[in-house]
Write a structure and sequence with these properties.
Layout: E1 3-7, H1 12-23, E2 27-31, H2 37-40, E3 45-47, H3 55-65, E4 72-75, H4 90-111, E5 120-124, H5 140-160, E6 166-171, H6 188-201, E7 209-212
Parallel strand pairs: 1-2, 1-4, 2-3, 4-5, 5-6, 6-7
Length: about 220
């Protein structure tokens, strides 16, 4: 049995990941800003009131964890705010950087003492952060923040490899969630099962990769 910490665990992909890891017999530490009935009833150990962009909250989380070992740190929390060229909301762009790009790095650094050789770090990113894959434009804040977290994850993979910790950057697919207005090509179950397979296959030989939930290697 592994101990898996999941951020943004109260709904969407995070909730599905929580439920699927629990179904496999793992211990799940579910981190969220606000709880949900589904998460409360899941059987996970819930840490609510945690804003992943707030360093004080993350220190509080670390103290609550009290030296417990984490086998999989799954940075899932993220936001998507739409704005178009000509009417860009730069405060919204900044917020997406704070939550989508800076928070996974901040969480990983804060909880690094709880990781050890053999631990894994997964960052839920997006192929919208791929420069070479961008053929439709727009999505400035979201695209920029996901490109930034891809770079952070790649650097983490290099810096953590000597410690025996592998890192993966994972695109969940176009998933039917609240974030996407329930538009998409796959449901949360299919996405979560693919993400879990990618994490299971993660090791020091493929650390730092950028992967689709279906196993496809993505271009930067």
């Amino acid at each position: 049995m592994s101990t898996v910490l999941i951020t943004g665990a109260n709904r969407g992909i995070g909730l599905e990941l929580t439920q699927q890891y629990l179904a496999q017999g793992h211990q799940v530490l579910a981190v969220c800003r606000s709880n949900s009935d589904a998460l409360e009833q899941s059987g996970a150990e819930v840490f609510t009131g945690i804003d992943v962009s707030d360093p004080t909250d993350l220190i509080r989380l670390k103290n609550k964890l009290d030296q417990r070992s984490i086998d999989v740190l799954l940075n899932n929390a993220g936001i998507l705010i739409h704005s178009q060229l000509g009417e860009l909301d730069f405060d919204a762009i900044r917020k997406q950087f704070e939550i989508n790009a800076m928070a996974p790095l901040r969480i990983t650094e804060t909880l690094l003492p709880l990781l050890s050789e053999g631990s894994k770090v997964a960052i839920i990113t997006s192929r919208m952060g791929s420069v070479s894959d961008n053929d439709s434009g727009g999505g400035y804040g979201y695209r920029m923040s996901k490109a930034a977290v891809n770079m952070a994850g790649k650097s983490l993979a290099i810096d953590l490899k000597p410690k025996g910790i592998a890192v993966a950057l994972l695109h969940p697919g176009w998933v039917k969630t609240d974030m996407t207005g329930h538009n998409g090509m796959i449901d949360t179950l299919e996405s979560a099962q693919g993400l879990m397979a990618r994490i299971d296959a993660l090791n020091l030989s493929n650390t730092g990769g950028f992967w689709h939930t279906n196993g496809e290697a993505l271009e930067w």
